[in-house]
Each structure stands twice: as structure tokens, then as C-alpha cells.
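thread: overnight batch results

M.L. [08:02]
morning all. the overnight job finished for the chain we discussed friday. pasting input first so we're all looking at the same thing
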Amino acid sequence: MKVDVAQVLKNITGQPMKDTDANGEATDATLKLAIVNALLSPVQKETGIDKVKKYELAKKVYQNDEVDLNEDEIKLIKDRVGEVFPPLVVGQIYEILKV
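M.L. [08:03]
and the structure it wrote out:
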């Protein structure tokens, strides 16, 4: 499934959500950044192989504005997003990644 990960996430009123960049400045919160942050968030009792798998997927997403994701990658992203983010973000990402 091809996914435009440069999409900007919206708040409940439809306005762009904001995030903070590496310099501490406000920037639009994108699907790309949400996915990368979710994948790179630590998980207890995780194997090195699982960590590398998430790292490789995070790199793939970060390096592109459109990415081709298979069902396993989408499931992994949804699982991590569901654990890390609040309902407003999770709902949008699940809608975008419908399979």
C-alpha cells in the first residue's frame, strides 16, 4: 500500500496539529513524524531483532514522503501508534492506514 507520509495530522477542529522540531520550534505534525516516533519509542522486553526491524522501518518512512508499506509493516505501525499516542492521533493514523 502506497502511503503519503507527508500528510499533516489535524486537531479535532480540523486545524494542523503542531509538534516541536529539533530546534524547539513549532512545526506541523506529520504522519511521518508520528510513525517514526512510535517505532523508535522504547518497549520493555524487546529483542534486538525486533528493535532492528523497527529501526529499519523507521528509516524507510523517514527517508521518503511516499512509502510502500506491506501488511506486516502496517500492523507493526498500528500496534506501536496505538501504544504511544492519544486517541486523536491514533484514530487519524488508523483511518489513513486502512487495509
